[in-house]
């Protein structure tokens, strides 16, 4: 007997919302994209290209059909997310699971205004959401086990690898690790140890390629924990442990060097170079993920 097609609503038609909608459409989910800004909605429709034909678009949350789940994917601002989640809850029945796509805002903080927080769960997708496999699944203190299980089941149906956190910490797991790495990278730049291009080469073509095949803990097992401990004993005291963002980062932002979106960050960007880079990145990501996924657990003990 064929399973009933899932119905989903994505609230927020920005970059993440659009790639989430594409993920749903590709996997046969009946998806509706909601955004109060008609121009943003139209841009999302254009970016979805052929997938727009099977996607519904709306400027309000009036539900004609009860969705299985709703994913909030608006700007990373707790007040905005609280307001949107409250609107979503008022628009669906108590059985509908509500997910928040946040990069690290505490789930209880976003869900503090909810009437039924038991059906609320964090799902941190990574950009581009239609390609990157892992999704951090983050329960709040009120989230029911059944909610987590259903969310993981749906994510698996979408071809994702749900990774459940035991407890919610600011930044979750991925962003904590990413920011720890960036803190040391910025420190090395500030100290004049290395130039930006060389630093990127070192990270991308050494630990970067290795981490695509082995997680850090698996890699430590392969290297030997005793070796890691010996290095840690002399290296940890010399690593950056700043409690404030790097002065270099503060300086760049103050000068308007915000990255590719304005044409200048650590590198210079044009519209053409950015478009080329993003297209190449998507293509390479798919190939890397395919290689990493091949027998990914076949040799584990």
UniProtKB/TrEMBL annotation:
Signal peptide: none annotated. NAD(+) binds at residues 12-17, 35, 76, 81, 103, 127, 261. The keyword NAD applies. One of its GO terms (molecular function) is oxidoreductase activity, acting on the CH-OH group of donors, NAD or NADP as acceptor. InterPro entries: 3-OHacyl-CoA_DH, 3-OHacyl-CoA_DH_NAD-bd, 3HC_DH_C, 6-PGluconate_DH-like_C_sf, 6PGD_dom2, NAD(P)-bd_dom_sf. The record marks 124 as: Important for catalytic activity. Keywords: NAD, Oxidoreductase. It holds the Pfam family 3HCDH_N. Residues 171-269 form the 3-hydroxyacyl-CoA dehydrogenase C-terminal domain. GO terms for biological process: fatty acid metabolic process. Residues 9-53, 56-167 form the 3-hydroxyacyl-CoA dehydrogenase NAD binding domain. The keyword ATP-binding does not apply. This is 3-hydroxybutyryl-CoA dehydrogenase. It comes from Vreelandella aquamarina.
């Amino acid at each position: 007997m064929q399973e009933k097609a899932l119905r989903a609503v994505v609230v927020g038609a920005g970059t993440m919302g659009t790639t989430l909608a594409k993920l749903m459409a590709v996997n046969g989910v009946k998806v509706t994209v909601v955004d109060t800004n008609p121009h943003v909605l139209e841009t999302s429709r254009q970016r979805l290209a052929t997938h727009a034909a099977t996607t519904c678009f709306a400027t309000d949350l009036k539900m004609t059909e009860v969705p299985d789940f709703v994913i909030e994917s608006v700007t990373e601002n707790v007040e905005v997310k609280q307001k949107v989640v409250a609107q979503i809850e008022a628009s669906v029945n108590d059985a509908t699971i509500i997910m928040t796509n946040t990069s690290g805002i505490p789930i209880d903080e976003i869900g503090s205004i909810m009437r039924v927080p038991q059906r609320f769960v964090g799902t941190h997708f990574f950009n581009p959401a239609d390609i990157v496999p892992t999704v951090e699944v983050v329960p709040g203190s009120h989230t029911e086990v059944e909610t987590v299980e259903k969310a993981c089941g749906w994510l698996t149906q979408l071809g994702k690898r749900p990774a459940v956190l035991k407890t919610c910490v600011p930044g979750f797991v991925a962003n904590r690790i990413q920011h720890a790495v960036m803190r040391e990278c910025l420190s090395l730049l500030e100290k004049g140890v290395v130039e930006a291009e060389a630093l990127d080469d070192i990270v991308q073509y050494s630990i970067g390629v290795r981490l695509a095949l082995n997680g850090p803990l698996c890699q430590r097992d392969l290297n030997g924990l005793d070796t890691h401990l010996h290095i840690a004993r002399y290296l940890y005291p010399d690593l950056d442990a700043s409690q404030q963002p790097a002065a270099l980062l503060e300086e760049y932002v103050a000068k308007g060097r915000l990255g590719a979106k304005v044409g200048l960050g650590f590198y210079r960007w044009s519209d053409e170079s950015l478009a080329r880079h993003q297209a190449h990145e998507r293509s390479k990501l798919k190939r890397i993920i395919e290689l990493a996924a091949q027998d990914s657990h076949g040799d584990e003990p």
